[in-house]
Amino acid sequence: MDLGIKGRKAIVGAASKGLGKGSAMALAEEGVDLVINARGAEALEATAREIRQKTGVKVTAIAADITTPEGRKAILAACPEPDILVTNAGGPPPGNFRTDDRARWMAALEAQLLGHVEMITAVIDGMAARNFGRIVNITSASVKMPVPNLGLSTAARMALTGFCATICREVVHKNVVINNLLPGPFDTDRLRSSSVFAAQQTGRDFETIYAERMAQNPTKRFGTAEEFGKVCAFLCSTHVGFMVAQNLLMDGGHYPGNF
What we know:
By secondary structure, the protein is of the alpha/beta class. Helix content is 46%, strand content 14%.
């Protein structure tokens, strides 16, 4: 299927590895020029080189912290008129709500909510003026089904979901579409860190917990960044103009509900 986005320009957050990298690669394979962002310059540059070599598209790597005005300014200076924005940021570390102090709460809100709100606000009117825009927020399956010890992440991501549901109908008539992609258990550093935390809390070994989590999924495996990226690219395509403010769960069937 031709996604109809060849020659478009995209900003992809937290793209040096994991789901952000998978999404950036999938967009590049569709002929989309990229500005990719992460805080670690070395890993980000390595990803940029890999995408260029595999796809031939233009890739600009901006090592910056999206939670800061300076970081957002640098990203937008590199791509002032994006057609596509994929918001993404590494989640806060797992923890018990009893020990989540104000500093941890504010860091989570800056990374998972406020930085993304600032980026969306900066680009959405320009998208509307050009009559094309796709915004995909990579959030979490915890928005649909809360996960123990991820209260900071869940609360901040749910707030972003509510914000986007509030604004999306103002711009969809201008072919600007906002949707959310909710990953479940993917084989990423994030999943491994949560398994390490569980091991520390329970005194069990990491390998056992990791294997048990895999076995608990109906697919008997974890998802891959590559397959996640393909779905993200589709949500950025010309074919989703009538799909608005959806929370699309991608979790291998782990969530047991009907809706």
